[in-house]
Design a protein that fits this description.
One of its GO terms (molecular function) is DNA-binding transcription factor activity. This is DNA-binding transcriptional regulator, AcrR family. InterPro entries: Homeodomain-like_sf (IPR009057), HTH-type_TetR-like_transc_reg (IPR050109), HTH_TetR (IPR001647), MT1864/Rv1816-like_C (IPR025996), Tet_transcr_reg_TetR-rel_C_sf (IPR036271). This protein is 63% helix and 0% strand. The longest helix has 26 residues. The chain is an all-alpha fold.
């Protein structure tokens, strides 16, 4: 990737967003290890000190990128849920399809949001927004007296595991179709036979 100054990338008054987009471009082309404040500045066409002013350090930049990634991730799930059948099961399949579509469309962002960890509750806001989509969609499938986290974890584990196996090439050249995997969701919340 050639990092040249391109003044057309910088929009006055929105340098924060321009630097985040530059960081996303670096992640997509070269991965998380290649991300640096200096490379973001060069790609955005600003001084090398500009990112430090907005983010403090590389960790701050990563979290700003993660915030944008979580927003996009949530939007994928909402969009796919809205396009699905207007039933509880249809919405569940919709968010799962959105989850998988995001992982395929944005593998670098997908892996980044699940590898970063921060302790303070404020930083978990964006992750909790995405999780609330899962929680709200799973709510109709929680049997009385069951901890909702059990059902949420079943759905999340299935779709997240499938996404990771596919992204890491563990499903071979011809992975099973989404519907074959997501068919398992019809049993969520039901008692075993």
């Amino acid at each position: 990737m050639e990092l040249t100054k391109d003044k057309s990338r910088h929009h006055h008054g929105n340098l924060h967003a321009a630097l985040v987009e530059a960081g996303i471009d670096i992640l997509r082309s070269s991965g998380l290890d290649a991300l640096s404040l200096r490379k973001c500045a060069a790609l955005a066409g600003v001084s090398h000190a500009a990112p430090a002013h907005h983010f403090g350090n590389l960790e701050g930049l990563k979290w700003a990128i993660a915030e944008e990634a979580f927003a996009r991730f949530s939007e994928f799930m909402r969009t796919h849920a809205a396009a699905a059948d207007d039933t509880a099961h249809g919405r569940l399949l919709g968010i799962c399809r959105g989850y998988l579509a995001f992982a395929r469309a944005e593998p670098a962002l997908y892996e980044m949001i699940f590898c970063l960890q921060r302790k303070d509750p404020e930083s978990k806001r964006d992750a909790s927004t995405s999780y609330s989509i899962l929680r709200d969609t799973c709510a109709p499938f929680v049997p009385p007296g069951t901890d909702p986290v059990i059902i949420e974890t079943q759905v999340w584990s299935l779709v997240h595991g499938f996404a990771l196996l596919e992204l890491h090439g563990r499903l071979g050249d011809t992975p099973p179709p989404d519907d074959a995997i997501l068919a398992l969701l019809r049993h969520i919340g039901q008692e075993p036979a």
